[in-house]
């Protein structure tokens, strides 16, 4: 018998097709081997709620530089997002380039005066769009 055949035959015999590959039972989550090029933005609320939207469906963005608090309105094809906070112009420019991966809102009572010099989101509103 050929040595290569014997080795392959032993490998075939050791693999039981009725047993899961990792032997640990059910496989609940399976990941892709590498990250793709899809860009999503994940919104995180102070209570731990999370939602993500794909940048490919971002149709319009609007920046409103109100008095102290700024507002960014994002129009996705299925949802509308309103971000309210301090110094949001740099966040708006980053959204223009699809850079932010995670936007986390923090409770307004934890925002210090020196924190207001950088982009700080204090409120996120996510609504289904009418269309």
Outline the secondary-structure elements:
Layout lengths: L2 H12 L25 E5 L5 E5 L3 E7 L5 E7 L2 E8 L2 H8 L5 E3 L15 E9 L3
Parallel strand pairs: 1-6
Antiparallel strand pairs: 1-2, 3-4, 4-5, 5-7
Describe this structure in words.
By secondary structure, the protein is α+β, with helices and mostly antiparallel strands. The chain has one domain (40-131). Helices cover 15% and strands 34% of the residues. It contains two helices and seven strands, in the order αβββββαββ. It has helices at residues 3-14, 89-96, and strands at 40-44, 50-54, 58-64, 70-76, 79-86, 102-104, 120-128. It is elongated and about 80 Å long.
Give a brief outline of the structure.
With about 130 residues, the chain is α+β, with helices and mostly antiparallel strands. It is built from two helices and seven strands.
Helix and strand run: HEEEEEHEE
| Approximate helicity band | 10-25%
Task: Give the overall form.
Answer: elongated
Number of domains: 1
Radius of gyration, in angstroms, nearest whole number: 24 Å
What's the helix count? Answer: 2
Q: Would you count the extended β strands for me? A: 7
Instruction: Tell me the strand order in the biggest sheet.
Output: 3-4-5-7
- For the termini, the CA-CA separation is 70 Å
Point out poorly predicted stretches.
Answer: none
